[in-house]
Amino acid sequence: MAQRQIWMVGTAPTGKGGIASVVQQYRDAGVFDGDSIHYEPSHDDKNSLGRVLPFLRCASRLWPAMLMGRVLLLHAHTSFGGSFWRKLMLALPAFALSIPVIVHLHAGSFIDFHARGGAWRKYCLRLLLRRAYRVVVLSAEWHQWANSVEPEANVVVVPNSLSAVTGCGGTEDCNKRPTVLFLGRISDSKGAFDLLSALAMVRESVQDLQLLIGGDGDVVRLNQESARLGLEGVVKYVGWADSKAKSLLFASCWVFALPSYKEGLPMSILEAMAFSRAVVSCPVGGIPLAVEHNVTGMLSPPGDVVALAANLRTILSSTTLARKLGQAGRQSFEHKFSHEANLPKIFALYREAGAKDLPIFPSQNQSTQ
After folding, report:
1. What confidence tens digit (pLDDT) does each residue in 294-305 have?
2. CA-to-CA distance for 252 and 173, rounded, in angstroms?
């Protein structure tokens, strides 16, 4: 009989968004090396069929593997909307066959997805949380929410993580031009247009200011708003940034800004901390777990453009402060958000379900000997 494997499903690691970033980090860390853990994409964003064909291919491989007894555990990364329904359909046969399922929740909009749903959607969400072997969330706030929706859910908090070597080749120094970096979807929910309004205020007191914006979304509105606010020489759109491009962008900025209204725990914030960059954001989702106000960055209420501008002005007026916040962020990243700190927590869940021969990380050596 073939070896029973852990099957992990989610967005293709070459895709866009938080789940793709998490899975790419897992892959780079060697999680899928060997035969113990198999990754199967259930979604990609290459074309309009990216939500259908990968799911059908995933189901056609996963479901027979379950029936043949080759699946030890299913680890499903899910967001809201179509992502939730795809993972529910993939998980239902596992529930029927008593195969443990780890449901890994991503995206800050998941809470709204539940709140705005009808009785059927809420029932299905409760079913997924209740039947899951473990529900992995990114913060204590999400832990409380998940148990308020389904008190029987077995919820554990495991923050997102990056390799500890991320950002080690960078520099803690700030370049001469005060530069803000935004990476993410250009939308209202990510605070992209609040950031433009705040920069228009900051420009009055910070000379030679620059905002670099990378990602996808409403680029047309970005250009229109930049022109309306007189920021044509300040805002530069750099497109979608791959790993190499992001490294260069982090190296060139003083501060990373993501003034979102809803979040889980953004990988881009962890990357900024790994690169020793100060972070300006909002206290939503798991962000306060990573960004401590006046220690690793600065926080303001979502939508408060005046407070956002004040935080940016404070950091951009002092290279000493920007460097101090960035250094503290790097230290916090190493202790809380590296793979060495968090992947062992995921593997511990696998072992509880009977998995063996998993990758060993440095922080596990002593406890597993």
Report:
1. 999 999 999 999
2. 9
